[in-house]
Amino acid sequence: QVCKIADVIAYINHDIDDAVRAGLVTENDLPNSAIAILGTRRSQRINTLVCDIVSYSWVVSGKGGVGEPGIGMNLSVLQATNELRQFLFDKVYRPSLESEGAKKAKKAMQLLYSYFLRHEDKLPREFGLLNDDKERKVADYIAGMTDQYASRLAEEISR
Questions:
Q1: Domain ranges in the chain?
Q2: DSSP code of 68?
């Protein structure tokens, strides 16, 4: 529960920052009803979420009231968080899948995958130690690449 809720806090705020920096959305595009509850700035949103989780979890743990132990958020904060998540899906994640950059990245991944399946000897040696499945080794190797490294390597391979 703790890891899942910590991921929600981190990803929502990080993805909002990335989307604003990339010019996909502006701060003014964020849903007013969610921002009114969570805060306009990143630090405010994180503080609101953390404080709410601590407060809610204290009550349901039996320390401040009665109930089953658990980690969660009060309903209004949960709804605001879900509204921000939905906003990100509608305005950032889904449209990004159809962008030219996404198509280029998909093509690069396919190129890298087929290349390393044909040239398993080009994989770092440590990828053969834990798994004998060639497809898994290749997928694990590609998954560990940074975006920049994968793009550069795909470009080199395609020459």
A1: 2-97, 100-158
A2: -
CA neighbours closer than 13 Å in the CB half-sphere of residue 53: 18
DSSP, collapsed to helix, strand or coil, labels residue 63 as coil
Predicted confidence (pLDDT) per residue in 22-35, tens digit: 888 999 999 999 99
Burial of 109 (0-12, 13-18, 19+ CB in 10 A): middle
Phi, psi of 5 (to 5 degrees): -70, -35
pLDDT in tens, 49-64: 999 999 888 776 655 5
pTM reported for the whole predicted model: 0.61
State the residue for tokens 């991921």.
7
- Rounded to whole angstroms, the Cα distance separating 150 from 138 reads 13
